[in-house]
Amino acid sequence: MNAAAADRLGRLLNLVPYLLARPGIEITEAAADLDVSEKQLREDLELLWVCGLPGYGPGDLIDMAFDGVHVTITYDAGIDRPLRLTPDEALALVVALRMLAETPGMANRDAIERALAKIESAAGDLAGAPVAVRLPGNADRLDTIRGAVERQRALRITYYTATRDETTERVVDPIRVLMVAGRGYLEAWCRRAEAVRLFRADRIDALTELDEPARPPRQVQLHDVSEGIFQPGPELPIVTLRVSRGGRWITEYYPCENVRPDGEEWLVSLRVTDLAWARRFVLGLGPEATVVAPPDLIEGVRAQAAAALDQYDKEGEYEKEGQYS
């Protein structure tokens, strides 16, 4: 269901009890109360005439007296109460809106706070349930980042890059904080890379707010994270793995180019930022995955696995020597 259809469904479900409480109301007054145009309200009323209970006969459909100026519901087909949120739905909305209100750099904060106030008022005691809203990651670190964004101050950070397995120090100009898939990210202009970068908050090992203003270039291109943080492009290398049942979970957590059943196993193709990360990823999967392509990754995994086994054998020999010495 698209957004327009969902909006109309909600409006129709609330329209019947609204009209039941106001028999003979004028169309102009009802349209103003419901914040819709008279044309839209008339179209909604025409649709209501063909809605009702299964059977859809004369005694099953919603009926009304409508003279073109005034309207009165004469049969409600059981829709006599406004649409209500369940307790779980209301609490979920309260928690989500509180999280949005805590996120720095969020646009339309006033609208968020107004919506939160309305839902909390309607939820009553439920809104005061002992649910603490905390941004994921290190709370103190996110508070510092949030403050730097709001004060528009530059930061010196020590950051761990998982794809390259390295830690670097850099100065960044904070732009905004994002929450994606339950994680906090700092989006900033990186002076070292001379580009906009996303830094995962829990991978910032240290940070210091500098006594200088943040100065990201004007009209920088911000990341579109509507479909997630990692959005692989055709320029990235593609890796094909043969995964067993225990490794199929990777297709739910990583964007895949192709997933094809092959007997009891799956052939999974996905793009990666670099083959070094892919090598560590495959080794972490253990016996649940085998590399099919590319050849460089096959050789890299084989070499690192052999080195690990060799080291294991040496440690075993040292232990035996210690026992008999």
TrEMBL record:
Pfam families registered for this protein in UniProt: HTH_PafC, WCX, WYL
Ranges where the WCX domain occurs: 239-309
Domain WYL: 142-208
InterPro entries noted in UniProt: CBASS_pafABC_assoc_protein (IPR051534), PafC-like (IPR028349), PafC_HTH (IPR043839), WCX_dom (IPR057727), WYL_dom (IPR026881)
Residue span(s) of domain PafC HTH: 7-120
Membrane-crossing segments per the record: none
Top-level division of the source organism's lineage: Bacteria
Protein name: Protein pafC
Source species of the chain: Phytohabitans rumicis
